Amino acid sequence: MAVPSTEPRVRVMGVETFVGDVDTVAETVIRRALAGEGGHVVLCNVHVLMTATRDPEVSRALEDAWLVLPDGAPVAWLQRRLGADAARRVGGPDLMPVVLDRGRDVGLRHAFVGSTRGTLDALTGRLQARYPGITIAGTVAPPFGSPSSWSEDVIASVSSWRPHIVWLALGAPKQELWMSEHAAALAPSLVLGVGAAFDFHAEVCARAPRWMQHAGLEWLHRLGSEPRRLAGRYVKTNSAFVAHAAIVLVRRRPAA
Q1: Fewest 10 Å CB contacts: which of 6, 113, 125, 135?
Q2: Contact residues for 144 (Cβ-Cβ < 8 A; gap 6+)
Q3: What is the pLDDT of residue 237?
Q4: CA 130, CA 158: separation in Å to the nearest integer?
Q5: Is the per-residue pLDDT at 256 higher than 50?
Q6: Quick one: 100 exposed, middle or buried, by C-beta within 10 A (0-12, 13-18, 19+)?
Q7: Dihedral, CA atoms, 222, 226, 231, 237, nearest 10 degrees?
């Protein structure tokens, strides 16, 4: 199994998910990165989780992951309803800065893959100012088009930088599929798919206010920011999640 047996976990809709908080995950990720054992980490929100229920390739990407994290308040909520009281949401935009900050003390080297050149330049500038001494080994913005046209060159470049961690932002589920196919070629680097984290920390997109994050309403803020792109996805996947969660919880309820 991808998740180490010593780590707390719970199976959610067939997916083995890590149980903990951002601090616990950050320390776990740093240990893995320093050990040079490679693998990939999926930050699993409702969209990714529900896509996995109907797409065998996405399901395989989650099954093959070293860790699957609950990047979504509803996913963490369902973990708790299934008995994992310590479960908390672990979002990519929250995890990334903690690992970057703590990684300075142990010499972690980071690579950033995805988004656009402008966003990457803004991201590296802001991170270097915020975390003096951080080691950014390299960045690459893949060209538009099928990953099959650029993956080989990107892998060669990133491997030459010898990062401990590769932060990947291709959007879901594209990044999950890419990690599943190519993370082994990037070993011993550990690859984490963090979605919109680049945009938020580069400050090219505004993140939801903290009260919305804490209330589990960050999805609503994103919907308001990108209604055309996200409305159909949220209606479809959120409705499917509610239905699936209800079935899971009813089946788990003890018989009278």
Answers
A1: 6
A2: none
A3: 80
A4: 24
A5: no
A6: buried
A7: -50
